[in-house]
From TrEMBL:
Gene Ontology terms for molecular function: glutamine-fructose-6-phosphate transaminase (isomerizing) activity
Protein name as it appears in the record: Glutamine--fructose-6-phosphate aminotransferase [isomerizing]
Reactions accelerated catalytically: D-fructose 6-phosphate + L-glutamine = D-glucosamine 6-phosphate + L-glutamate
EC number in record: 2.6.1.16
Record note on quaternary structure: Homodimer.
Domain SIS per the UniProt entry, residue ranges: 42-182, 214-354
Gene expressing this chain: glmS
Taxonomic placement: Bacteria, Pseudomonadati, Pseudomonadota, Gammaproteobacteria, Lysobacterales
Keyword Amino-acid biosynthesis: no
């Protein structure tokens, strides 16, 4: 039931602290990820894994892109993330020692399921499913399973499924990286960030009223550009997808470093530019990209980490809690969900049932 909430999407956005806590429950102990989360043999399997192929669609693909950054940077193991409808038709090359990972909220997405079936014939070490529906086809076809525990997601636009996918993939990346010899301090810090996620997300949800006020600026816009770097590039992609899906505003996401290679030509006073600015190694580069937008008269909206906020000289800056590399993409997603929700409400669209879209895409 929607209860006090006007839409399922809003309810599901606000359920995220609980959904994240549920997804982490019983999977961390004494500050460490329990390696049994993937099943009993996972230790030996992770030790053998020399490459990871992640396959998914839509929002779940964006979770895979974030995980790819984590896996390469923490575990030092090559990782690709790919759209299932491309993977399944392109004859992927699979070297020995490769783990296949599918990500799906429903567990029934036709392209993801077909990719998994193809993968089973391609000599992967194992097929891991990160999924929200225990009795789904994708779970049944996989040899390893890591469930997200988001609970039923009714809104067509995915919210809590995405952030719980990130939490599950964070657990996986840290467990895997630990098996591959990740520096102990960085490992423990990553696990601590996961444990802090429910609280950090609850804190970020308090920005709701401020974001609702910003939404008025977008209601009459035709286009929007989302920018990020590193793990925040896929977060920007997810922000653009949410805005497209429910408000029908054309939105694109770019890695901020690509601005000069084309999209800067679009920037003018009618083009809102939304940037996610975590406090990471690339922040100085991002801030200089934003300066380029500002000097072209672009309307800039910045969702900034607490420690970055004071460096962004703009009234349309929203300050989020300070976060590390694992928590930041999850936390940064929250304001983007709220922004697209409020813009859609102002535009009077059917938020929970956007036109032309289905919750579960069981045909190609
Ligand atoms: C976007 C959205 C879709 C799904 C995609 C994959 O808000 O919901 O892009 O993410 O259809 O669905 P699952 O995760 O069920 O495989």
């Amino acid at each position: 039931e929607r209860g006090e909430y006007r839409h399922y999407m809003l309810k599901e956005i606000h359920e995220q602290p609980q959904a994240l806590a549920d997804t982490l429950e019983g999977r961390i102990s004494g500050g460490r990820v329990l390696t049994q989360i993937l099943g009993v043999d996972a230790d030996a399997l992770l030790a053998q894994t020399e490459a990871v192929h992640i396959v998914a669609c839509g929002t779940s693909y964006h979770a895979g892109l974030v995980a790819r950054y984590w896996i390469e940077s923490l575990a030092g193991i090559p990782c690709t993330a790919e759209i299932a409808s491309e993977y399944r038709y392109r004859n992927p090359v699979v070297r020995p020692g490769t783990l296949f990972v599918s990500i799906s909220q429903s567990g029934e997405t036709a392209d993801t399921l077909a990719a998994l079936k193809l993968a089973k014939a391609r000599g992967y070490l194992a097929q891991l499913a990160v999924c929200n529906v225990p009795e789904s086809s994708i779970v049944r076809e996989s040899s390893l399973v890591l469930m997200t525990r988001a609970g039923p997601e009714i809104g067509v636009a995915s919210t809590k499924a995405f952030t719980t996918q990130l939490a599950a993939l964070g657990l996986f990346a840290l467990a895997f990286a630990h098996a591959k010899g990740l520096d102990e301090a960085r490992y423990l810090d990553g696990v601590r960030q996961l444990e802090q996620l429910p609280g950090l997300v609850a804190e970020t949800l308090k920005l709701d009223a401020e974001i609702e006020a910003l939404a008025a600026d977008f209601a009459d816009k035709q286009h929007a550009l989302f920018l990020g770097r590193g793990t925040h590039w896929p977060v920007a992609m997810e922000g653009a997808l949410k805005l497209k899906e429910i408000s029908y505003i054309h939105a694109e996401a770019y890695a901020a470093g690509e601005l000069k290679h084309g999209p800067l030509a679009l920037v003018d006073a009618d083009m809102p530019v939304i940037a996610v600015a975590p406090n990471d190694a690339l922040i100085d580069k991002l801030l200089s990209n934003l300066e380029e937008v500002r000097t072209r008269g672009g309307e800039l909206y910045v969702f900034a980490d607490h420690d970055v906020g004071s460096r962004v000289d703009d009234s349309r800056t929203l300050v989020m809690p300070a976060c590390g590399e694992i928590a930041a993409p999850v936390v940064s997603t929250i304001p983007l969900q709220l922004l697209s929700y409020h813009v859609a409400v102002l535009r009077g669209t059917d938020v929970d049932q956007p036109r032309n879209l289905a919750k579960s895409v069981t045909v190609e």
